[in-house]
Amino acid sequence: MGGQACILYGGAEFSRDTDILVVADAANLAGLQAAVIAVPPFEGRFLQAGHVVHFRCHTPDAAGIRLDVMAKLRGLPDFETLWHRRTTLETPTETIDVLSLPDLVTAKKTQRDKVWPMIARLVEAHYARHEPAADDTMRDFWLRELRSPTILIEVARSAPGVCERLQTARPLLEHAAAGSEPELVAALRAEAEAERDADRRYWAQHKLLEAGSTPTAVAAAILHHFVPPPVREAPAPVSRDSSPGGPQGRSAERRPQPRRYGPARRKPPRR
Asked: What confidence tens digit (pLDDT) does each residue in 73-132 have?
């Protein structure tokens, strides 16, 4: 999963690490020999809660490679279900098991800006390869995940029945079916922002739970972090002192004096 899986699916991406999904039981975790380089500790309870543990490999054939290990992904089912849906790729030297493309796209929907162009490239690459022989299963996937307005409108027009069926799950398909590209662009942007907010809330909750906060404190912290503060009214202007005999504006701000232009005044000579 992660950047390496994107490359295998045809979405070019530079990645400094390898992300793997594991079963977080004691027997399986005992077989992983690597040095933890960041929090949290390498314990099953953190993996089962959705945290990522970062390692640095020391085996001779992978020395120095960073490995990110996780056992749970936001928005996705358990490991057994993901394993059943996996894609297996055969190379001349080995067999590689990766997340299915729909699961990989869901896993990539995070708050990081760089993942959204990658999601678009992944789905567009799949569309380009399979569009001539597409079936309703593929069209279902494209209508759920495409982020290119032009292609999304094209698929919506080619599969109106599938598009209508999915409008409840993805309301912006109504704009795609109508061919309203400006409205569709705005809806796609709002959809991505909603996913970013969901990811922020997810990780805010995990960080607080890791620190031992109560569920009530977690909810209060999330509301405090994501609900905008009330708008404060601007202070009333300071009144000027217009009493007779006194200079106006004692309590007001000092006004800049106009610049005087003309011949410079000379100081009188000393005697």
From this structure: 888 898 899 999 998 888 888 888 888 999 989 988 989 888 898 899 999 999 999 999
* Domain shared by 128 and 65, yes or no: no
pTM: 0.65
Burial of 230 (0-12, 13-18, 19+ CB in 10 A): exposed
CA distance 35 to 55: 5
64 with 130, same domain? no
- H helix runs in the chain, sequence order: 3-8, 26-30, 44-48, 79-84, 101-107, 115-130, 136-145, 149-158, 160-166, 173-178, 181-210, 215-226
Q: Does residue 249 belong to any structural domain of this protein?
A: no
Number of structural domains (the chain) is 2
Containing structural domain, residue 187: 109-226
Alpha carbons 200 and 123: distance in angstroms, whole number: 24
- Residue 23 within any structural domain of the chain: yes
Band of pLDDT at residue 188, cut at 50, 70 and 90: very high
